[in-house]
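Protocol step 4 of 5: obtain the predicted structure for the target chain.
Materials: sequence only (see below). No template structures provided, no constraints applied. The aim of this step is simply to have a reference model before the mutagenesis design in step 5. Sequence pasted as it appears in the construct record:
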Amino acid sequence: MIILLYILKKTIKLLHIIMRTQEQIWYDDFIEILHKKYPQKTQLIKSLKKILGLKQVAIYRRMQKQVFFSVHEISKIATELNISLDEITRIDSERVAFHLKQINYLNPSNEEVIFLRNIIQSIYLFRNYPDTEFMDISNRLPRQLIAGYEHLNRFFLFKWRYQYGYDCDFSRFSEISVSDEKLRVTKEYYQAIKQVPQTIFVWDRLIFHYLVNDIRYFISIYLITDEEKELLKKDLNNLLDYMLEVADKGCYPETQNKVNLYISQTNIDTNYNYTFTPEANICFVHAFEKFEIYTFHSEIVTNFMSWMQLYKKTATPISQIDEKKRIEFFMQQKQLVNNL
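Step 4 output (structure tokens):
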């Protein structure tokens, strides 16, 4: 009987150790995920203070594991930062977590600006991994390209506000005001995206037709003036000149990082993209003009990447290898733009 009690006590103690070890593992994983979300420690602490309403000392104690975050606190953090329970516990629930990040791009909050700057910082980290690849399939000009052109960027915000903005359905193009902070972040993003070692663009062959038709519509209902039309035409021509140079060289001229441009021979229904790195993978589906639905789920990302690579079968490469088709395509787009 004494022996049985001894064995029972030892077994219970061992189970406690195992449970504590498992708890420590997932807690360490949770802390690691937080650091990935906010690489800068000061930004992470500031964000957690705002989410939990705790003092800085209390946050530091939890981050240093002197005290554990409570279940309620972890739930609040996971909800605010779009962290799935599968990520935290490493348990495959056979459910795929998709997230929709909503950002007010016209007047972003301080938290949204921090989120955008974290994205930019993450992109700069990609240059340390030569195998990193970004692929974008588009029927609308990708955000990372229009970010470099003030009036084009403003047009996409204007169109979104006209179609989905509940506060002002009939704002004129001239009434769209972008904050100075947003303009700075946009320019930083435009420069950062060129740090990715390998980029693949697959464009719908009618991508500029769709955009020109949109601009014509808003001109026809007097929300865009003739002077504003000329500014948009200038941006579009500058973008076409730049992308022709990128396609000629097969790289971004500023960084020499590789770029492959394809023109799809079939219609593309929306924008899709993925980012592959040795550290982490993510895929996006573009929704409602300026939002992305995204997931880190490894199996979904792998399948998504395979599907997107197959899309090149119905697309024509025009970077470097076919000068005639490349020049013809860009000349056709310039003619379309100049006939606005």
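Step 4 remarks: The two ends are 94 Å apart (CA to CA). Residues 2-37 form the longest helix (36 residues).
Proceed to step 5.
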